[in-house]
Amino acid sequence: MSEKFEMPDFQPNELDRTVIIGNTASGKSWLSKRLGEKLSLSVVDLDQIRWVDGDYSRKESVSVAIAKTSEKAQQEQWIIEGVYGWLVSPIIDRVTCLIWTDIPWSESRRNLFARETARGSIGNFKELEAWSGDYWNRKSASSYHAHLAIYEGFKGSKYRLNNMNETSGFVDRIEQS
User: Fold this and answer.
1) Which of 21, 83, 87, 139 lies 20 to 30 Å from 133 when distance is taken between CA atoms?
2) Distance CA 24, CA 144 (A)
3) Ranges of each domain in the chain
4) For the chain, what percent of residues have pLDDT higher than 90?
5) What CATH number is given for 17-176 in this structure?
6) pTM
7) Is 128's pLDDT higher than 90?
8) Rounded distance, CA 135 to CA 24, Å?
9) Sheet hosting strand 78-82, strand order edge to edge
C-alpha cells in the first residue's frame, strides 16, 4: 500500500547524495536531471555503468559495475539514479536522501512509449514493455519488492512518489526553495 505523499520542507544538505530508484520509465531520469540542474549536482545514470558504452547488448561485469558505482559514491555530492537495486545497496550508507518513483504501470508504460518513440527505438518497445511490466512480479534486485525493501530499510530522508503529479510537485517544491 502506498503512503500519502506530503510536500516536504527540505533540510540543508539533505539532497547532497541522493539515490532515485524505480521501475523503467518511472521518471527517474527526468527527476534526476531537474534536481541536478537546480542543485548543481552531478547526475549518474546507472544504465551508463551497467551497459558498456551505452550498448544495451553488452553488460558490464557485476564487480566492475559495483566498483564504478562505489567510486562515484565517494564524491561529496551527487544524484545516482537507476533501476538496479544491486548497485544501490553497496552505497546505501553514503546516501543522504532516497527517492522512489513508485508510479502506476499505466504511467510507466505511457512514459516508456513516449521515450522510445522520441529515441526512434520503437523496435525495442515490446521487449522493454514486457520487462517493465513484470516489475511487480519479478524476484530480482531490480523489482518492486527489492525497491520496497531498500526503501523500508533506509533510515535517512526518503520520499515515495506515487505518480507523475507527485514527481512534478516534488520538483516544483525544490525549484521554489
Assistant:
1) 87
2) 11
3) 17-176
4) 74
5) 3.40.50.300
6) 0.91
7) no
8) 8
9) 43-45, 78-82, 17-22, 97-101, 157-161
